[in-house]
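Data availability (excerpt). The following record was deposited with the supplementary files.
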Amino acid sequence: MSGKRGTVKCIDDEILDKLSLANRYKFLNNNLSSILTPKYFNFLRKVQKFYIRFEKKNNIDHTEDFYQWIPECGKEGLVTRGSSFDFLDLNYEPFGLTTEFMRVLATDFFDPQMAMGMGATVLATNPIMLHHENIPVRLEALKDMVTGKKIGCCAITEPQRGSDAVHMVTICDEQDDGSYIINGQKTYQTNGPIADWAVVYATTEKDNGNTMAQFLVDTSWDGWKAERINIPWVGRMQVGKETLTNLRVPKEYILGMPGRGREHLFEGLNLERLGIVILNVAQAWNAVSHATIYCNMRKQFNQEILKFQGVGFTLADMWAKTMNLTLATLHICQIIDEKMEKFKGILPQNLNLALVATASQLKSQSAKLSERVCYGCANLMGGAGACDNTLMEDLMGMSRIQEMGGGTRQIQQYIMSYALRQLFKML
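Predicted structure:
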């Protein structure tokens, strides 16, 4: 996307003013104040205040390249809050998955595409956090991404494999000095074309997931080529296809040796999918806030359109479903935080296994809900929901691809049906 948003105004100034970031935050806060503890509600409001000031100071209309904003957000500790990162001398407080939920809610209301772009960097930080082994180059990369100085991506998906993450064709060959040479292609990586760091997966044998390895790659190295894929629904987000040609990875950058990569991959999938759930919930709330304000102000036949049952009842139904999903997501975030605190930052294996089906259930249903709510709210707003005067076009575009990322709809259904089979066998 290029140019200024809303050059041709289709919405009255009075309504546009009411649709401000501050007012949409107020709507969200009025919904969440009764279900959040002061710890998380205060953090949410703190992040909101940052984005309100940031938008005003920079005269942002959300057609700009959002990647330029990430360093300043990183200084505020707003790239990720999944951990305290005390070993990096950052000491974020509060932190944890519930705090991350609040961070994403506030960020998505400010700029939905930036929220997704930040999420891709978070995916790259998670495996390094778990497997840095206090090696300086890994800690440096991690700190640079956590603080917003550098951009990250996670390279799993391949052109001919899609959601089949186990049967990779990207090959890694061990060298005499302990380094590895990687050859192959990856695709649909959010942030891929501009990433400074990438977490890359490859196997020593084609289609053999048991030989998978996990690597940290500096994208300035010879052998890394990234091309931008055009996905019109997320026009400001950089999505890439990467070609790795004789890319040499020194041994200190090997996060998981062959045979360990698959384990490392799956240990992060639950958190990845829950991260997508959080993003879906944020998108739905953002859409509902737009539609609620608009439908309370837009008049047709001499009365506010919210008073017509076809509008008011439809919006109320989407609002209720969004709140219900919020409560479910908040509940699972709090359970994970409690376990992480009890076990000193390590998610117990039995809980991680149990979360496989839960994460797929929430990912599947939240993606479907986000798509329906974002489109439904735009529909209630009529032409105002389809023009570029608001963030509704971003929300509709992003929600359309949410069932694809992190494992397609069919992959989630497969995981859930397999879980049902396993539960039956336990009878």
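Summary of structural features: Residues 152-259 form a domain with the Butyryl-CoA Dehydrogenase, subunit A; domain 2 fold (CATH 2.40.110.10).
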